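Minimal example, chain plus protoporphyrin IX containing FE.
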Amino acid sequence: MLHRRAFTVSVVWTLLLLYLGSVVHATESSLACPDWPTCFGTLFPEMSGGVFWEHLHRLVAGGLLLMFALATWLARKETADRPWVFRTCLAGMALLVVQALVGGLTVIYRLPDLVSTTHLALALLFLVLATHVASATSWSREASAPDAGAARRVSKFATAAAVLVFLQSVLGGLVRHTDAGMACPDAPLCLGRLVPPLVNTPIILHFGHRVVGMLALVAIVWLAIWVVRQGTTDAIRTWALLAAGLVVAQVSLGFLSVLTVLAVLPVSFHTLGAAALLTALVHLATLARVSAGSPTQAPETQAA
Ligand code: HEM
Ligand code: HEM
C-alpha cells in the first residue's frame, strides 16, 4: 500500500519544512527574496546568505505540494472503500495552496504580525491533517486494544492535549512576531518575579505563553502516567511516553531560547519541538481511536 508510505513521508517532510521556516525567521532571511513567487525574478537565484534559507524554504514547500499530491492520487486508488481519506487529502491540498499564498503575502506585505502568525497556524493545521490520515491508514489488526472504553478515553484526552498545544503554539507565534520573545529577559522567573507586573502587551503575551506552557507540561505528563495504567496497547503507551518526553524537551527549549537571547538553534528547535509534540499527540489520539474499533479503519483490518 504505497499511499501509507507517501503519507508518512509527507509528515516528515512537513516537520522539516516547519523547521526551515523557523530558521528563515530566526536568521532574518524572511525578506531575502524581495519578490514572490519568483526570487529576484528567477526560480534559480544564487543560493547564498539569506536567499539560501528563504529560497530553500520555498523549494521544499514546492516539493511537499508534489509529494502530497502523489499521496492524494495513491489514496484515491487504494482507499476507495474509505472515501473520507481522499476527501481529507483534497482538503489538505487546498490548505497547502492557501499556505503558499499566505507565505507569498508575508513577503509582499513585509511580514505583518498577523499574516506571519497565520502562516505558522496553517502549517500546524496541515501537519495535524497529514498526521491524522497517515496514522489512520497505517493501523494494523495487531493494534486492537483489549479495553475499547479505555482506548476511547485516551483518544479524547490526547485530542484535548493536541488542541492545547496548537493554541499554545499560535500564542508562541504571536510572542515571536510581536517581538515579545525577550519581554521577560530572565528565566525561570520573569522580571525577577514569579508573576511579573502585567503592564504591557509583550509582557502579557510572553508570561501567558510561559503559564500555558507549564499547564501543557503538567497535563501531558499526567496523561502519560494515566495512559500507562490503562488497559491499552504497547504502541499507545509508547506514544504517550514519547509525548511526555517531548513536552519536557519543549519547555526546556523555551527557557533555553530566553537564556541564549533567542539564538537560532534553540528557537528553531523550539518550533520543531512544538510540531513534533503535536504530531505525537495527534498520532496517539488517532491510534487510540482506531484501536478502539472506530469506523476510520479499513473493513479488512477490523478486529474480529
Ligand atoms: C512557496 C510558499 C511559501 C512561501 C513563499 C513561504 C514564505 C515564508 C516566509 C517569508 C517565512 C518567514 C516569515 C516571517 O519571518 O515572519 C516563512 C516561515 C515559515 N513557513 Fe513558509 N512559505 C511557504 C510555504 C510554506 C509551507 C507550505 C509551510 C508548511 C506547511 C510553511 C511553513 C512555515 C513555517 C512553520 C514558518 C515559520 C513561522 C514562524 O516562525 O512563526 N511555509 N515562510
Ligand atoms: C508545551 C509548551 C510550549 C509550546 C508548544 C511552545 C511553542 C512555541 C511556538 C510554536 C513558538 C513560535 C515559534 C515560531 O513562530 O516559529 C514559541 C515561541 C516562543 N516560546 Fe514557546 N512553547 C512552549 C513553552 C514555552 C516555555 C515554557 C517558554 C519559556 C520561556 C517558551 C518560550 C518561548 C519564546 C521566548 C518564544 C519566542 C521565540 C522567538 O521570539 O523567536 N515557550 N513557542
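The chain has eight helices and no strands. The longest helix spans residues 49-78.
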